[in-house]
Amino acid sequence: MSRPDLPLHRYVAFEGIEGAGKSTVVRRVAAELSDGAEVTVVREPGGTPTGERIRSILLDGAAHPTPWAEALLFAAARAQLAAEVVAPALEDGRWVLTDRSVYSSLAYQGGGRGLGVAEVRAVNEPGLRGVWPGVVVLLDVDVDVGIARQEVVDRIGGEGAAFLATVATTFRSIAAQEPERFVVIDASGPVDDIVAAVLTHLGASR
Ligand code: TYD
What we know:
Blueprint: E1 11-15, H1 22-33, E2 39-43, H2 49-59, H3 67-91, E3 95-99, H4 102-112, H5 117-128, E4 135-140, H6 143-149, H7 161-177, E5 182-186, H8 191-201
Helix pairs in contact: 1-8, 2-3, 3-4, 3-5, 4-5, 4-7
The structure holds thymidine-5'-diphosphate.
């Protein structure tokens, strides 16, 4: 299902491994955009009461979901967010900036956990009903740098360097397959430069 009625080019996902600086960049881009436009900022997993409860299961070190249970929980939280927040905001003409998206599931569960990118995509599509990011900003950073910058280590982000290296490789290969959707930015440089590059890409620089 696609949603040609929605302005999906205003639905912008920020992706990358831990320590890539997504949260800072999202905050800064939102502040720049909100100067002249309405912006909704969300994060995955979470962003709705239902999603935040699923998030606590997913990131709890005491929980041990199987890889497929993990993938389906992420997909469930995301389906709720798409229906409850993202689609209505886009319908209202707002920008929606998201800290992670379905592409994290493709890279972490599809690549990192080895479930397969196509397989994970297939279980996400029905719940999203075409509410799919039109732009994906991939903040690309070396695994060692990302791990060194990591502030909070959660159940999945703490899987180790080999896991994150597979996640990073999967992000890059998806970006290469979807060049019209992805903008890949070297995230080792100054935040000001990253924010400027994102705004230019969105056609919102000033
Ligand atoms: P997040 O809270 O965004 O952490 P970070 O600060 O590292 O970006 O994400 C929590 C963890 O969940 C992170 O290790 C990435 C992982 N994750 C997945 O494995 N699949 C997904 O679909 C999403 C959205 C996140």
